[in-house]
Amino acid sequence: MSEQLVQRLCDELTKLVLVDPHTHINPHSPASKTLADIMGYHYYTELAHSAGMPKSQIEERGLDPKTKVGRLVESLVHLDNTVQVSWLVELCRKFFGFNDERITTSNWETLYDKAAAKMAEPDWEDQCLQQSGIERVFLTNDFDDPLSGFNSQRYIPCLRTDDLVFHFTNPTVHTRLAKATGIEPTTVEQIRIAIGKLFEHFSRNGAKACAISLPPSFAPRPPATAAELNQKFAAAFMQADADPDVRRLGQEFVFWTIAEFCADYKLPFDLMIGVNRRVYPEGVYQGQDLFDQRVSLIQYKDLFNAFPQVTFPISVLAQISNQELVSYSWIFPNVVTNAHWWYSNIPAYIELDTKARLQAVPRNKQIGYYSDMYKLEFAWPKFSMYRQCLARVLATDFVIARKWSENDVLDLGRQVLRGNVESIFRV
Amino acid sequence: MSEQLVQRLCDELTKLVLVDPHTHINPHSPASKTLADIMGYHYYTELAHSAGMPKSQIEERGLDPKTKVGRLVESLVHLDNTVQVSWLVELCRKFFGFNDERITTSNWETLYDKAAAKMAEPDWEDQCLQQSGIERVFLTNDFDDPLSGFNSQRYIPCLRTDDLVFHFTNPTVHTRLAKATGIEPTTVEQIRIAIGKLFEHFSRNGAKACAISLPPSFAPRPPATAAELNQKFAAAFMQADADPDVRRLGQEFVFWTIAEFCADYKLPFDLMIGVNRRVYPEGVYQGQDLFDQRVSLIQYKDLFNAFPQVTFPISVLAQISNQELVSYSWIFPNVVTNAHWWYSNIPAYIELDTKARLQAVPRNKQIGYYSDMYKLEFAWPKFSMYRQCLARVLATDFVIARKWSENDVLDLGRQVLRGNVESIFRV
Amino acid sequence: MSEQLVQRLCDELTKLVLVDPHTHINPHSPASKTLADIMGYHYYTELAHSAGMPKSQIEERGLDPKTKVGRLVESLVHLDNTVQVSWLVELCRKFFGFNDERITTSNWETLYDKAAAKMAEPDWEDQCLQQSGIERVFLTNDFDDPLSGFNSQRYIPCLRTDDLVFHFTNPTVHTRLAKATGIEPTTVEQIRIAIGKLFEHFSRNGAKACAISLPPSFAPRPPATAAELNQKFAAAFMQADADPDVRRLGQEFVFWTIAEFCADYKLPFDLMIGVNRRVYPEGVYQGQDLFDQRVSLIQYKDLFNAFPQVTFPISVLAQISNQELVSYSWIFPNVVTNAHWWYSNIPAYIELDTKARLQAVPRNKQIGYYSDMYKLEFAWPKFSMYRQCLARVLATDFVIARKWSENDVLDLGRQVLRGNVESIFRV
């Protein structure tokens, strides 16, 4: 009966059309063309590699899409337990008429061809969104993205700022910034003006958020004075091999300046906290990053206090950070919980995290989920996974333990799934 | 059937009258007078503020109780999901004849008036305790509390020592200590003697515990020699802005001295580990503290080894500390687990923590729960929440998984709820 | 019905005969002779001590086995809730015809005598293994173990290297190494050659793994040059009280050299990460170690990258490390998850950890369980505990949530229980 309750809640929640508040969709090519686009998602390439397939086979130069899929399918026998592979099977069932339990070396070619035919339909993008119950999709845009040539009602720009904060000393970043803004960033004040121009451009083009991913060691502080920064300008902003303490001054200045413009432009600042890049440099593309769980939100204390007018939707990579996230969201008005990110995006952790959040964070401060997808086909299975977890927590902790009516828990579920996305990002 | 089992166990456990081993009750005014006393609990003010209400509205000077409640009720629409608001609703149902699902802008005034009438009854304190199944209540007393003018059979003194250890350099602490003991703390030896006088006073007045809350950075060590401490006396004990390393010598000396007197007076020393104070200084009263989960019980290794004759009931703020607490309690005879504190006091964490403790810590070393309440009305909903969690763990992990009889699990439940409070605190 | 499903899966998994991939069995005396061998396991002595029994009573010199058991039985009244005591009761039921719910001061003598009679049967070792469903057992051998005089088909050697890495400066280690290899370790090159001889000896005698336990502070780095190491030879390799930074150079060199030989000899290198030794030096034998959970697998980044050809089965002591273990195993081809170790080896944590691993780590990279036992009688109750947890996760997360067939989940269970032990350790 409890399983029936979960299913009933899940079915109702599935009727709600959603706004996906964080993805890596390319709005010029949002949907897949073949299964290679789908199975080229780093989850499959990195898991295939982890399970024993050499990187050289997966990333062989000039590999045609079908051969690549054929190779990756060989790995699925080691991966079918993973929830990531369940996403793959679920989307093939949903969109491509796949009816088997597993994708195998015997059935993949038929699937490949059926999928290719379906994705070749001219309105595949619309079909996919419609079947997935998604109507608007946040993007992740480079700071120098022209933001033109796509439907910005459907695809909502978001200013991604990792390059500015952490790779400012990279000459190509200078060049890109100068080109995008017409300003050579040769003084602290020019950097500030250039960043302001980016915000103006993004805001004018409908951006609804600014975002950044952050390493566990980062602890933003109010920046040094302009005088000090200008005096140390080269080491702070120009030299990748400068004294790390001085280089950090540059990062802190850029980060703080971005937060100031978030205040000016009334943009929420998505913080995705805790990733170490290139921990396994010989890994496949996008399959090299990991984390150090020894991180605390206390590192962001100065930031949260300095910008009460900026909303910070926070994602944490380490599951153990969830209690801090719950507690900081419970105390700081400007901190809100944001979905279940990457290595924490599996049902075992989603369910634990959702329970704690629903028990202790104000209901208007919880963004339930984003897909983080690169291709539209993934919204369906990822949101489905989340809805299952959410429905389970609503059933056990609210309907059963606290005797809430099903209508009341569905209202809570809908707020977390969609309502808060609208109110927090003003979309 | 399993839900019925949980309910059956819970109902039986509810019959047991309890001793609440840690509260902030003022024995001169233990019960509430209006709903404003109840909704003024920091959980409601901080959550209302977190959900969007300005501090100025909540803490407006001269606000009358009824207006304050009216304002806070407006926030409940954002907070009804939280377990803290479920405590509020539960106690209103239990004590004030409230029958609705939620407290709203439409029904709160009636509730306010009914509650005020009930609480105006001359024996409300007795009624509340009796209905709550509580017969004795530990206090949290300032070190200079005269401990007179209340029923010390019902209200058991506990010497709280945060001020002595962490605010000794504050001149008012010096003054209070001198006034309470008749000793000017101008040498290390005088400090020791003064602290001894406090213990004598508390012990003579029926104190059954000493307690302190500790920041995550604290790591007590055997103190420096008296000679060194006297030489650095000003920086160690008098100056709030002294070199932190020397100031820490003072904190370590006071802390260690307190532990020594706990040994002499056979008092358990409650350690509440992991809170950072004033992380959000613009927060409402008592809604400013948070934590850094990067803390380990290894920091207390010297203490546990140096005082085998002192029992340390330990509460941890970060849920991730629970496994260390379980493991240290499993190995050290003088370490016992103490309830579920503050940010860990929600069902999601209570249930996980209870499971691990019941599976691996000797049953005579577990203090199940304390209410931490400021007003008597909260014992009922908080202990109810805990009993539900405990009953669930007893049902699944003992009756179902290990085939224990219901009588045997109830004995275990009663020991954790009350028996160990009596044996550990000798009450 | 769900409980029936769990039981059905568990019963099927129990039919599978296993290889136990990590134990402390003495192959010259693998089984117990009396209950004192069984109750002398550190879990019982340390828990009895923790619950209040003085170490002097437990470890009294010259205590005869029966008196010792009688004393320990007195503590069981405080310990019957623990899963460790449930192992004891379960093995007494399984092997010694014990039928009561608990071992008490009234029934233990009969049990003691029946157990002694059973264990005196000449084929007890064979009976015990056969009834336990275990056919091969990994050992933990000192580096200077002659590895002779036992059935190495049944008992598989494993080179334990803690002494070499962490106690090299101890003169007895020098002497033992010289004696075992015929080489005086007086230069860096001689140390390397001596370690190589150990690998040759172990490999020739059927060793299938190398293993080490590691403190939370350890972070292996590529070693210093031979020139630097030889220059600092005394402080790095000979003096226990040398500058810790130089001594660490010695530890890093020995550790890295062992990893190199693991590559040469194609041996997996079991890393057991996170134990602090002698945290409670007054504790009973083997009941003195604890941990500091502030540790990260990022500390092993250099190692994992430097030795792609070595498989690292990793056990973590702190439960909070499990997500890092899951994530590093998901990304690094040479990292695999290895069982549930010591303070994490209780159902509450096994179940959480198993859920995350089965949801996100390739199925061919998970070693489900090892017993870590010192006496053969413990394989049965420990593996039974694990099988219950595994069956529960397979039932809820795969049969119910993901609609897998029971046959398919049993295949997954069998791979994790046995198949991967065979493929990873090549046995």
What would you note in describing this structure?
Three copies of one chain form a homotrimer. Chain A is built from 19 helices and eleven strands. Chain A is α/β, with parallel strands linked by helices and 427 residues long. The first copy, chain A, is globular, with a radius of gyration of 22 Å. Chain A starts with a helix and ends with a helix. Chains in contact: A-B, A-C, B-C. The interface between A and C is large, with 40 and 41 residues.
The tally of strands of chain A reads 11
DSSP helix fraction of chain A? 40-55%
In whole angstroms, how far apart are the ends of chain A?
A: 38 Å
Tell me, briefly, the overall form of chain A.
globular
Most extensive chain interface and residues per partner: A-C, 40 and 41 residues
* Secondary-structure-derived class of chain A: alpha/beta
Short description:
Chain A has helices at 2-14, 35-39, 42-50, 55-58, 65-79, 83-96, 108-119, 124-132, 162-166, 171-181, 188-204, 226-231, 233-238, 244-265, 301-306, 322-331, 347-360, 379-400, 406-425; strands at residues 18-20, 134-138, 155-156, 158-160, 209-214, 269-273, 275-276, 290-291, 312-316, 335-338, 366-367.
